[in-house]
Amino acid sequence: MTNQPTWLVGAIAVAATLAPQITHAACDPGEELIRFSHVTAESGHPKGEAATLLANRINTELDGRACMEVYPRSSLFNDDDVLDAMLRGDVEMAAPSLSKFEAYTLAFRIFDLPFLFEDILAVEEFQASPQGQEMLLAMSDQGLLGLGFWHNGMKQISANVPLERPSDAEGLMFRIQPSAVIAAQIAALGAESQAMPFSQVFDALESGQVDAQQNTWSNIYTQGFYLVQDGITETNHGIIDYLVVTSSDWWQGLDDGLRAELEQIILEVTHERNRFAFELGELARMRVRQDGGVIRRLDDAAREEWVAAFAPVWDQFRDEIGSDLIAAAQAAEGGI
Ligand code: LMR
Questions:
Q1: How far, in Å, CA of 255 to CA of 11, rounded?
Q2: Which ligand 1 atom sits nearest the alpha carbon of residue 97?
Q3: Is residue 280 classed as helix, strand or coil in its secondary structure?
Q4: Of 60, 18, 66, which is closest to residue 42 (Cα–Cα)?
Q5: N or C terminus: fewer CB in 10 A for the chain?
Q6: Whether the CB of 223 sits within 6 Å of ligand 1
């Protein structure tokens, strides 16, 4: 880490001690309260920006009938307890990453297969296919309903040692999301993994509880992970994408007209904000670089080594995920 700007270090330290920032509308009695819980930054981040736009539109266009409060940065719930909270009626909407749904469905495991999706356009196309749209209903028997997919970006690997080839990761302890496919990736590197909530990752990296993690540029920048890592290796080996999720009971209990209008607003916000996910990621990558973060790009030979290192993961999960589904995802590689 070189040229680390003091303002940023200071800002991160201050942010850690401040009360969480909450985008609260002044909800009036009689309005349908919609609490939206998420774990990332509220600005400069695809999910944070989408949640803010959603709240702004609902609070303007449905004023008097509905009111959305956004709780960013895990200020209401962590991803590992938000779905239970939703089923209890303690929160109405969230957008956890697709790797966080293992306890409810295995349908999203496909999104964690390494080097399956070339880019977010391929993810978008697969999600728009009949197989992708069916996944919105994957948890309907458990009372959870998907309302749309929000994009973040491709995953990179950061570590507290220079990481160029897969063998450099051997023996490291990685923080991971709670996904068996991701755990298998780390095992394939000869490394160890520990699942932990997003809100704990910075401290765990800083204290050395874990050595490494994998995430998107917008998460690496807005959480300041690059400040406490040797560098970031641009593997683009996986994706982080989100499911906007709600409780089926709560959703079905809404007045028909209100539900239809909410559905339309969510659709429009999804289209609008998903177009900017890539740009926000690139901006974050540039900021990491400008702040002195070390970015290691892979040449073709090194990329092939990473692809080969992760290949056993495909063998482990191919049957369970289903060759047909994998073929449908691969067919989306042409882009749109
Ligand atoms: C993570 O836990 O690393 C991400 O899923 C966080 C997020 O919501 O982007």
A1: 43
A2: 5
A3: helix
A4: 18
A5: C
A6: no
Instruction: Return the pLDDT at 14.
Output: 36
Q: Is the pTM of this model over 0.85?
A: yes
Distance 30 CA to ligand 1 centre (A): 34
Q: Give the chain's domains with CATH numbers.
A: 6-98+140-151+242-290 (3.40.190.170)
Q: Is the CB of 214 under 6 A from ligand 1?
A: no
**275-321 per-position pLDDT tens digit:** 999 999 999 999 999 999 999 999 999 999 999 999 999 999 999 99
Please tell me if the CB atom of residue 40 comes closer than 6 angstroms to any atom of ligand 1.
Answer: yes
**How many Å lie between the centroid of ligand 1 and the Cα of residue 31?**
31
Q: What is the C-alpha separation between 288 and 291, in angstroms, rounded?
A: 5
CA dihedral 42, 45, 46, 52 (to 10 degrees): 20
Contact 317, 181 (CB under 8 A): yes
* Percent of the chain residues topping a pLDDT of 70: 91
**Pair of tokens at residue 100:** 């966080």
Q: Residue 28 C-alpha to ligand 1 middle, in angstroms?
A: 32
Over 50: is that where the pLDDT of 234 sits?
Answer: yes
Longest dimension (CA), the chain: 62
Could you identify the atom of ligand 1 that is nearest to the CA of residue 213?
Answer: 3
Q: Which whole-number Å values give the CA distances from 198 to 8, 205, 225, in the listed order? A: 20, 11, 11
Question: Which residue has the CA at smallest separation from atom 2 of ligand 1?
Answer: 198
How far, in Å, is the centroid of ligand 1 from the Cα of 220?
10
